[in-house]
């Protein structure tokens, strides 16, 4: 029997994920748990009675209702029906017992190669300590990696060690950090803007928008006039922007370089101290656009 995928979600109202079946049409519980840590089964809403039904589970193998998975969305069961947060609560409880009140947090992994899978991440980070959860963020429409993911450890000391160093994953250097929501209040928020260097005059805002939409939602594209061989792209998600920084990408056959855009508090007069006649016009341009040159290009 050819491989098929069933649609699985944490909740009926959430975006489902496709889980592969086995050759005989069954689905391994371990396949579900790999994407939804802590899962102990599946259930679905019966189209006729509108009641929730459980999927038969035998020795770690899930069997299709009436031998046909159909086009239904299956919802993950967790112990005591506590959904996905149960594993985080259990992990936090275990951590408290072992380490007092220091808790581990989800870490964002930036700069992932597009080919890296959840299993690749788990295999790599398991060498540092016990891993509770791994996730590669993917585009909901294409299924392609967005170039970043998340990992969480059982032990706080392991988390600290992982944050303190860079990581070579599938041939690329990656960084692990606390997401913005967990960062120190004094730490500045990461920019959602990227600086696109080495642009050519035939690149339009539509060209750049269409290209970068493959990585995430694009909220704005800015090309200075007169043309200055660079552009700025703003994403809805700062994590996408950070994941692209440092990359060399091919757009319309031209290699462009992606780097950070400086936050607006970097004053234009500090960036261009030797432009007494042109600083006003430059400042006006940047004030209108809310973009800045990255420090590496000044």
UniProtKB/TrEMBL annotation:
Keyword set includes Ribonucleoprotein: no
InterPro entries: Nucleotide-bd_a/b_plait_sf, RBD_domain_sf, RRM_dom, TDP-43_N
Subcellular location per the Swiss-Prot or TrEMBL entry: Mitochondrion; Nucleus
Alphabetical keyword list: DNA-binding, Mitochondrion, mRNA processing, mRNA splicing, Nucleus, Repeat, Repressor, RNA-binding, Transcription, Transcription regulation
Molecular function per GO: double-stranded DNA binding; RNA binding
Predominant location: mitochondrion
Gene Ontology terms describing biological process: axon extension; blood vessel morphogenesis; locomotory behavior; mRNA processing; neuromuscular junction development; regulation of gene expression; RNA splicing; skeletal muscle tissue development
Pfam families: RRM_1, TDP-43_N
Name recorded for this polypeptide: TAR DNA-binding protein 43
């Amino acid at each position: 029997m050819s491989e098929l995928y069933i649609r699985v979600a944490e909740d009926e109202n959430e975006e489902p994920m496709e889980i592969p079946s086995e050759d005989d049409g069954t689905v391994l519980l371990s396949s579900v748990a790999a994407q939804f840590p802590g899962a102990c089964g599946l259930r679905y809403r019966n189209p006729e009675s509108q009641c929730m039904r459980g999927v038969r589970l035998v020795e770690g193998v899930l069997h299709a209702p009436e031998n046909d998975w159909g086009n239904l969305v299956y919802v993950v069961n967790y112990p005591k029906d506590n959904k996905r947060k149960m594993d985080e609560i259990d992990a936090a409880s275990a951590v408290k017992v072992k380490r007092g009140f220091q808790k581990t947090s989800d870490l964002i992994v930036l700069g992932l190669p597009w080919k890296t899978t959840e299993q690749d991440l788990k295999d790599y980070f398991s060498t540092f300590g016990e891993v509770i959860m791994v996730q590669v963020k993917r585009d909901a429409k294409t299924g392609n990696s967005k170039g970043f993911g998340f990992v969480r450890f059982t032990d706080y000391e392991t988390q600290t060690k992982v944050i303190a160093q860079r990581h070579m994953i599938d041939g690329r250097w990656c960084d692990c950090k606390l997401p913005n929501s967990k960062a120190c209040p004094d730490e500045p928020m990461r920019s959602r803007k990227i600086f696109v260097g080495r642009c050519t005059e035939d690149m339009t805002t539509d060209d750049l928008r269409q290209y970068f939409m493959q990585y995430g939602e694009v909220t704005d594209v800015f090309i200075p006039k007169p043309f200055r061989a660079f552009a700025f792209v703003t994403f809805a998600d700062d994590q996408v922007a950070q994941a692209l920084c440092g990359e060399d990408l091919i757009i319309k056959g031209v290699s462009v370089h992606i780097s950070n855009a400086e936050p607006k508090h970097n004053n234009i007069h500090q960036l261009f101290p030797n432009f007494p006649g042109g600083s006003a016009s430059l400042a006006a341009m940047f004030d209108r656009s809310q973009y800045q040159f990255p420090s590496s290009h000044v």
